[in-house]
Amino acid sequence: MGRSLRYIVIVCLSALALGGCASNQAVQKGSPDGYAHAPEPPPQHSAKAQKLWQVFERYQGTPYHYGGTSARGFDCSGFILTAYREGLGKQLPRTTSQMLAYGDAVHPGDIEPGDLVFFRIGGKEQHAGIYMGGDRFIHASTSSGVTQSSLNGYYWKGRLTEARRFD
């Protein structure tokens, strides 16, 4: 294999490996900076949502770090694990696939604030976040770190595959 072809293969494989907790940024025509921006979510009335929102505000903007579970950096499941532990006093499984195996399945049309939402990226469920109501979810993305996004945003629309409730 030629040197340049080997380089291209390595770059492509690296990009695929880093896509485990996918990006939420999407270019949108007509917005001032070219990126999709969603409004703040509506105020939540449940105590569960308020506690999770407080954790989100504490860590908002924390960078993405694969395998991360602290303020130094989070991956998607690491942020969920920390948010549930700090906000709700609940211990969840560590990985996205383990989270999918536990909890009560919820039809995507019946999700409530605090439910976990799972997204299909690259053919399998490999990204997760916490639904906060009003079409919004919080998560750790590779491009923005801990952030909030719209379920109907350019990148996420049509990728939601499952939801789980951990009561």
What do you see in this structure?
This protein has 167 residues and is of the alpha+beta class. The chain has a single domain (3-165), classed as endopeptidase domain like (from Nostoc punctiforme) (endopeptidase fold (from Nostoc punctiforme), Alpha-Beta Complex), CATH 3.90.1720. Helices cover 29% and strands 25% of the residues. The chain has helices at residues 3-18, 47-59, 76-88, 96-101; strands spanning 69-70, 73-74, 104-106, 116-121, 124-133, 136-141, 145-150, 160-165. A 6-stranded antiparallel sheet has the order 3-8-4-5-6-7. The protein has a two-stranded antiparallel sheet with strand order 1-2. Strand 5 and strand 6 (136-141) form a beta hairpin. Helix 2 packs across helix 3. The chain is globular, with a radius of gyration of 16 Å. Residues 7-20 and 22-39 have low confidence and may be disordered.
Summarize the amount of helix as a percent range: 25-40%
Please describe the biggest sheet, giving its number of strands, its sense, and whether it closes into a barrel: 6 strands, antiparallel
CATH homologous superfamily descriptor: endopeptidase domain like (from Nostoc punctiforme)
SS class: alpha+beta
Order of helices and strands: HHEEHHEEEEEE
The number of domains is 1
Beta strand count = 8
Large-scale geometry? globular
Distance between the termini: 53 Å
CATH architecture: Alpha-Beta Complex
Share of β-strand residues = 15-25%
Order of strands, main sheet, comes to 3-8-4-5-6-7
Main CATH class: Alpha Beta
Tell me the number of helical segments per DSSP (H or I, 4 or more residues long): 4
Which fold does the CATH topology refer to?
endopeptidase fold (from Nostoc punctiforme)
Radius of gyration in whole Å, from Cα?
16 Å
Question: Low-confidence spans: pLDDT under 50, at least 5 residues?
Answer: 7-20, 22-39
pLDDT averaged residue by residue: 81
